[in-house]
Design a protein that fits this description.
single chain, 238 residues, 2 domains, six-stranded antiparallel sheet, 8 helices, 6 strands, 39% helix, 18% strand
């Protein structure tokens, strides 16, 4: 059943505590970098020009560091090698930040994501890839979906997010949290950047309880919905 309003604050916490008693698995989505090619180009120029290393970025990363990168490279002819007309100064600044400091930000978050996945690999059940897009060079790119056991450690991290729609960049290293029962049935599905959340209520009692804790559905009466099934091949198991 489609959720009408954002699930946040105390309502989010109550829902998560309910889920922790109902579900055994959750998944997170790695959208990847749609502009990976230009990100690599900009980063290579920034790193080589300033003799930065990846460790330098991780050690010095801050808002001040990002602003410094922007100021140093906003007029770099290697990065901005194609003429472009801007409608305003703000439009120009936003565009140039996207190709300088924001590329550094993407790199930082990617490194943090890799570290987080490594730290939690023992509780990862599997990961699957799904087609994302084909770039201008005809190369196919894929996104990763990671499935984890819902341990007490993860429960603490999940509660701290405060909102179902905080599971998106830059509020989260991985995105679009979904929850599954132990039999593989998807009980909650979310797409944070689209403000989309679906809960597969199993009966009227469950529907009424969720409404009682403050969740609002577009459907004003309980309607049975077919749960999606989590499917994976044995070859993807950890």
């Amino acid at each position: 059943m489609l959720v009408e309003e954002e699930i946040a604050g105390s309502i989010y916490e109550k829902l998560m505590n309910y889920i922790f008693n109902k579900c055994a698995i959750f998944s997170l989505f790695d959208l990847g970098d749609y502009h990976a090619k230009s990100t690599k180009k900009s980063l290579d120029i920034i790193l080589s020009t300033e003799n930065y290393t990846a460790d330098d970025i991780m050690k010095n990363y801050s808002d001040d560091f990002l602003n410094m990168v922007y100021e140093k490279f906003k007029d770099n002819e290697q990065i901005f090698d194609k003429p472009r007309v801007f409608g305003s100064q703000i439009e120009e600044e936003n565009y140039k930040r996207a190709f300088t400091s924001n590329k550094v930000k993407i790199f930082y978050y990617n490194q943090m994501k890799i570290k987080w996945l490594q730290e939690n690999k023992d509780n990862m059940i599997c990961n699957q890839q799904e087609y994302y897009y084909t770039d201008d060079d005809g190369i196919d790119h894929y996104s990763d979906i990671y499935y984890f056991r819902l341990t007490s450690k993860f429960r603490q991290e999940i509660i701290l997010k405060k909102s179902i729609y905080n599971w998106q960049y830059p509020n989260s290293l991985l995105e679009d949290i979904c929850f599954f029962k132990s039999n593989g049935d998807c009980w909650l599905k979310s797409v944070a950047h689209e403000k989309l959340c679906i809960i597969y209520c199993e009966n009227k009692e469950e529907y009424d309880y969720l409404k009682s804790i403050g969740i609002k559905f577009f459907e004003k009466e309980f309607k049975p919905t077919k749960m999606e099934k989590w499917q994976y091949s044995d070859g993807n198991k950890q």
